[in-house]
């Protein structure tokens, strides 16, 4: 079984990473021309592990129904590039977090051995958090936008913040525990920039600023704020680097 060189042997990975690691592989040369030269280059994209707590399946369906209803009255051309997130959840460590950790700890081009050690630490942190917090609930609050700043290119997420202090404190604690584990206890400035870490559940994604504004306004009028949702144990999320 091939697997990404960004991972150690899948048999040695902690659960729940093994099955997902087994599905990861680099794309290797499979054909040669009549002179014996490869017709395609080897592409190796090692992956690093982040984490998120997904909304329970029934609550995810409920959210999708509310979002679809809210967007039903908008002309398709205004929201055609908006995507309702099928598995909404709260990021404990996003792709941006992972990149910042690598830049701070390992530089721009970490070796495969360093990535393996990072992924193993991430997997162990995920398991530890999941053991301590199997399931919890959160009350959705304000609808707002995260992601690319105004008038800049990039992904935008229309999301719901969490209204109850207990959920915010718990998820912030999860994040601190996770980052402490993957950085081996070293303090890393992850939350750089104007916004600190705010636990939130992303609902819709788009790279179009005008679409994002339309969707945000529509969801602010929907019956999303105030509902309770379940949060499943933290699960690994994979981000390609290089």
Name the poorly predicted regions: 1-29
The value of Rg in angstroms is 20 Å
What is the multimeric organization of the chains shown?
Answer: single chain
The helix content, as a percent range, equals 25-40%
Major β-sheet annotation: 7 strands, antiparallel
Annotation, overall tally of beta strands? 7
Spell the H/E element sequence: HEHHEEHHEEHEHE
Shape: globular
The secondary structure category is alpha+beta
Overall pLDDT: 78
Total helical elements: 7
Q: Strand order across the biggest sheet?
A: 2-6-5-4-7-1-3
Gap from first CA to last CA? 23 Å
Roughly what fraction of the amino acids lie in strands?
A: 15-25%
Task: Provide tags for this entry.
single chain; 242 residues; alpha+beta; seven-stranded antiparallel beta sheet; 7 helices; 23% strand; globular; disordered N terminus
Structural features, described:
This protein is an alpha+beta fold. Helices cover 36% and strands 23% of the residues. It has seven helices and seven strands, in the order αβααββααββαβαβ. Strands 2-6-5-4-7-1-3 form a seven-stranded antiparallel beta sheet, with helices on both faces. It starts with 17 loop residues before the first helix and ends with a strand. The N terminus is likely disordered.
């Amino acid at each position: 079984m091939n697997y990404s060189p960004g991972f150690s042997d899948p048999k040695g990975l902690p659960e729940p990473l093994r099955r997902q690691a087994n599905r990861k592989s680099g794309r290797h040369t499979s054909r040669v021309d009549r002179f014996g030269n490869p017709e395609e280059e080897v592409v190796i994209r090692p992956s690093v592990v982040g984490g998120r707590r997904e909304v329970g399946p029934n609550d995810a369906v409920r959210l999708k129904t509310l979002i679809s209803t809210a967007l039903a009255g908008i002309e398709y051309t205004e929201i055609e590039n908006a995507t309702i997130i099928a598995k909404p959840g709260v990021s404990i460590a996003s792709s941006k977090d992972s990149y910042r950790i690598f830049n701070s700890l390992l530089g721009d081009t970490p070796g495969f051995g360093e990535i393996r050690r990072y992924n193993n630490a991430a997997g162990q942190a995920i398991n530890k958090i999941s053991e301590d917090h199997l399931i919890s609930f959160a009350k959705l609050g304000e609808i707002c936008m995260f992601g690319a700043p105004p008038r800049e290119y990039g992904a935008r997420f229309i999301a719901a913040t969490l209204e109850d202090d207990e959920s915010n404190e718990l998820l912030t604690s999860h994040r601190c525990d996770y980052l402490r584990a993957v950085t081996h206890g070293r303090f890393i400035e992850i939350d750089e920039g104007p916004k600190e870490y705010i636990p939130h559940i992303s609902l819709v994604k788009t790279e179009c600023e005008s679409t994002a504004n339309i969707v945000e306004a529509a969801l602010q009028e929907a019956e999303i704020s105030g509902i309770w949702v379940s949060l499943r144990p933290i699960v690994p999320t994979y981000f390609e680097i290089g």
